[in-house]
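User: Can you help me understand a structure? I only have the sequence.
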Amino acid sequence: MRFRYLGNSGFKISEITYGNWLTHGSQVENDQATACVRAALDAGITTFDTADVYANTKAETVLGQALQGQRRESLEIFTKVFGPTGPKGHNDVGLSRKHIMESAHASLRRLQTDYIDLYQAHRFDYETPLEETMQAFADLVRQGKVLYLGVSEWTADQLRIGAALAKELGVQLISNQPQYSALWRVIEGEVVPTSRELGISQIVWSPIAQGVLTGKYLPGQQPPAGSRATDDKGGANMIRRWMRDDVLERVQQLKPIAADAGLSMAALAVAWVLQNDNVASAIIGASRPEQVADNVAAAGVTLPADVMAQIDEVLDPVVERDPARTLESSPKQREA
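Assistant: Let's start by predicting it. Here is the structure, written out as tokens:
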């Protein structure tokens, strides 16, 4: 495993982060989830990402249980706040001071830890003054309950104003967690250049495009039984945008490139995002322990320029690059 600094800080995280969105507390039984976490630890992963909204708080509980017995100082535990939790009442969502404070303390209990290494605003909240949000985050840092602050799926403009407010309060935003893959490159035009300027790193999710970049989905054929595309608990909705024959045909053309590089298709996809020097870590998920080992093979891999060019040539017609897609990710109104 290799490690990279997160943003303009002295905080290092593993190049591969284990995340439990759409799996723990939902798709995968707890024993299997624990086995996947153990496989991540065995592979040298020290960074774990979750969120209170995943499986309506159950994912945090499962992760906390799975990490028991590990040396806390050797782990980096990340979680997020914004989405509706609990009974989804009128204050059970968003980035108000009330919801942030209550959510942080609940996350600490579920994760069975005294502090959160990185606490992230899961989306931008248009209904709460950003000053209120940043003050609540800063207070958690001063209380020692949170060590570092990050956000997820914020636009370049939102990152700029958030970083300025954090600085005024004597704290720092060091990370953004966007979707990023060889198929989804919307952060490259605006978010990445702004982040470099501000000292913010990306911790990217869905580097294998919900599994599409593994090549297991074939054009003109039904998805394999038990795969993400057949999951009626949310997975099928997320992957739908890529389940087009023109995309799947292009992905199949990556197989000889991966073979020549000595990598699986999944490892090639993860290695691709790690070539971006603004990416500190790629988040992987797993429903089986062996998937962890496959993805971790991407750590420390350098893809030559000609290989990167080949991937670009193959995928170019189906790549999404529009920076406006980031703006769409944060709801203009809360769900609850």
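Now, to help you interpret it: The longest strand covers residues 76-81. The mean pLDDT is 93. Let me know which part you'd like to focus on.
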